[in-house]
């Protein structure tokens, strides 16, 4: 059908829906529209609800074009995407998003670190707003859907609602979060951590530099942010700013695709902790020092790596995971006993207490191993130890109802990767919508989600935002 004709039909449906109910009560058509979207009509016939639902149309071609255009703002050639915080390409990508927000009629605001907010005012602007959003930074040689689907998709969700004639009661905001990826300054979810009141982070950023010794604030200023001062306390959100936050994201895992399910409804986000460990021994010549006389820092590291696996398995839960992703030996020569070893350990769980027990066991093992092997445990540093987050029941219900209203299959699931939602959960009730992606690939150029799957996600997001905005 031609878009103009479709548009006409939609308007007609709204006219019929609105006028059919106007006679029955004293509410205006806007209120009726909101009732349609709530899924729980008060004075309403059911046919109008389904008419409204079928009026939710995603402009899939335009959305795909936007995803492609954004992916061209990259420091590496297609199909890979590389977009690092506060670089020229990041600034251009931000401009692209702000433009789209304005074209959708949103009022745009930026904070001192470049979190971007596009607001669609509700007719009760004093109420806490409903928010949605994600990130557009991309690690080196990654793909074009991670994060992007939750930003461009959120703007399209607003367009979908506007085209359908919906008027929000609570304002709806689209947020672009600064630096979800830790690429440049080693800090993941920098923007959302600060929004959630990261005072320690705000302080640490004063002395943070990147791999080229460029300071965080110098980089931020060169991108047009943090102009006036180094004080980031005005970035912190007041609790109660948002009544709900919902993020749309590719699954980054294979489950939805394998099971042929359209929508994943996230019930919890596993939270990571990471630990740095260093052992030091005397080293020595690989031939000359006899076995009884050694204190090998490399073997201590090897033993600890196996202990990490053992402690994780001891938890008895499939949700506990642990990884030694970095293990470096010094001096790193075949004929030299390692005098120093360096490990970095990542461990995650959806149960914080269980995850913390694992960390404690790793700490005890590290010191026991050091004692038994006569090496020094020169560092045991917990880099971050974030609590997991649970999705809010009422938001899970809104996402489930929206999927059902749209006849889309859905599944409750856990997010094992972390997202800005993990930190937004500290200041707002939170929920997440996953869509399938090819083989679960992410953080590489082969990352892919079909435009049909993306459109389904956008529709569920639109309907969920609509329901939440009238609550
Ligand atoms: C980094 O920059 C600071 C300030 O400009 C300077 O004092 C310091 O020596 C530099 N560090 C390195 C490793 O280059
Ligand atoms: C969902 O399926 C029902 C029953 O087949 C149908 O009446 C309804 O129009 C469908 N809704 C949407 C939004 O496609
Ligand atoms: Zn992401």
What's the rounded overall pLDDT mean? 90
What is the CATH third-level topology name of the largest domain? Aminopeptidase
- Sheet with the most strands, sense and barrel status: 9 strands, mixed
* Number of separate helices: 15
CATH architecture descriptor of the largest domain? 3-Layer(aba) Sandwich
Which molecules other than protein and nucleic acid are bound?
2-acetamido-2-deoxy-beta-D-glucopyranose, zinc ion
- Order of SSEs: HHHHEHEEEEHEHHHEHEEHEEHEEHEHEH
Strand percent estimate? 15-25%
Q: Report the uncertain regions.
A: 1-35, 37-50
Helix content: 25-40%
Distance between the first and last residues' Cα: 34 Å
CATH class (first level) name of the largest domain: Alpha Beta
Question: What's the number of structural domains?
Answer: 3
CATH homology superfamily of the largest domain: Zn peptidases
Structural class computed from helices and strand pairing: alpha/beta
Instruction: Tell the overall outline.
Output: elongated
For the structure shown, list the relevant keywords.
471 residues; Alpha-Beta Plaits; binds zinc ion; disordered N terminus; alpha/beta; 3 domains; 4-stranded antiparallel sheet; binds 2-acetamido-2-deoxy-beta-D-glucopyranose; single chain; Aminopeptidase; 9-stranded mixed sheet; 15 helices
